Every structure is written in C-alpha cells, then in structure tokens.
Amino acid sequence: MDKLSKVIFDMDGLIFDTEDLFMREQAKVVKEYGYELTREMYVKTLGLTGTALSEMLKSLFGEDYPEKEVTSRVRKRLSEIAESEGLPVKPGIRELLEFLREKEIECVIASSTHTKYIIGYLAAVGLEGYFSAITGGECAKRSKPAPDIFLKALGDTPKAEALVLEDSENGIKAAYAAEIAVICIPDMVMPSKDVISLAECTAGSAADVKEIIRGKYANT
C-alpha cells in the first residue's frame, strides 16, 4: 500500500459551502451594473482565476464588464458574512481534518481564491490551525485547469505521497495535469464522465474520503 504524506484541499465548494452563496451575492451586484448572472454562466467560472477568469467573464458579459469592482464588492460581502456568521463548513470536513491530524498527515490549501480571504474564512470558523500552508490564486501564474497551483502547493512532497480533494471540473483537470491523485467531492455540478474518469474516485462527502484514505494508504 502507498504512503500518504500530504492532502491538498480546494476551498470553495470543498471546505466551505460557498459556491451558491457567492453566486447569489455576485448576481445581486452584477444586476446593479445592468447585467444578469445565471447559474449556467456562474458554473463556467468555477476554479478560474487571473487571466483565465477575466477572459471568461468578458465572454459572458462583454468587454466593458467591471470585473475588479464587482469582485471586490462580492468578496467584501463574503468577508462580512464570514466575520458575522461564519461560512458554512461542508459535511465531514472537520472530522476529516481531525483524522488527518491524528495520522500526522500534512494538510494544505490550493484555491483560486486570494490568500488573504482564505485566511479570514478559516479563522472565522476555527479551521486555520489544521493547515500548514495556503496557496491562493494569486500565487500561480496560470489558473486551473493548468497544474501550477497544485505543483506549488505540493512543494517537496513526492507526487506519489500526495492527494488532492476537488469538486470542480477545472480542479480535477489541474490535479490530473500535475500528476497527483485526486478524489472528487461534487458540489454545484457533477463533473462530466470524462473528467470524473481522471479522478481516483468520487465521494459523496468528506466523511467518505476518510474511509477511502483508510483503505488506500498504509500509514492510515
């Protein structure tokens, strides 16, 4: 059996149940600028950041779309919600993190969200102590589905000893491109069969991942 040394977590839709929340807040803001955001449109942006996200938003809303203003306002709103209410944590996440801590397996985050927001979200619900490092979207030159962010989060850990947890198609593609094993925990949208085939397996929740890890790795 293989050894597991590091688990790389995505954040939005994986640790936090934030995708629907972000979509609703973004829809409110873009409406003020005269645009309409549908669920189908939002799904196309999942896992993207930087130039890739900008290009997608322009294709959806046009060249004049005020991306920076909208994103800033939506992130500010989410930060306010995180501070006042705390963001909803996905089922099984706390138990999975505690299990990995007990097994002395390093946990890190690789998310398209900016690092400063990730830090705030984790602190608001008391999860910051479980992660040894955070790689935010600004740390990678290329957005998912390119492998950059996962390779950076991997560091010196051998690829064979790492595992990625992802919910989105772009995230699964990025992990596969990085040659790191990935488990899919679907959130807003079930990835296509072709993308699912790139993952080790699909889990219903983080609680299921705990059992999958137990059955796959010798040190668990």
Structure, briefly:
The chain is of the alpha/beta class and 220 residues long.
**What's the pLDDT, averaged over the residues?**
93
Radius of gyration: 17 Å
- Along the chain, the helix and strand elements come as EHHHHHEHEHEHEHEH
State the end-to-end CA separation: 10 Å
Number of helices: 10
What is the number of E strands? 6
Q: Give the quaternary arrangement of the chains.
A: single chain
Task: Name the shape in a single word.
Answer: globular
Q: Strand content of the residues, in percent?
A: 5-15%
Which residues sit in consecutive blocks of at least 5 with pLDDT less than 50?
none
Topology:
Layout: E1 6-9, H1 19-32, H2 39-43, H3 50-61, H4 67-84, H5 93-102, E2 106-110, H6 115-125, E3 133-135, H7 148-154, E4 162-166, H8 169-177, E5 181-184, H9 193-196, E6 201-202, H10 206-216
Helix pairs in contact: 1-4, 4-6, 5-10
InterPro entries: HAD-like_sf, HAD-SF_hydro_IA, HAD_2, HAD_sf, PGP-like_dom2
Organism: Candidatus Ornithomonoglobus merdipullorum
Pfam families: HAD_2
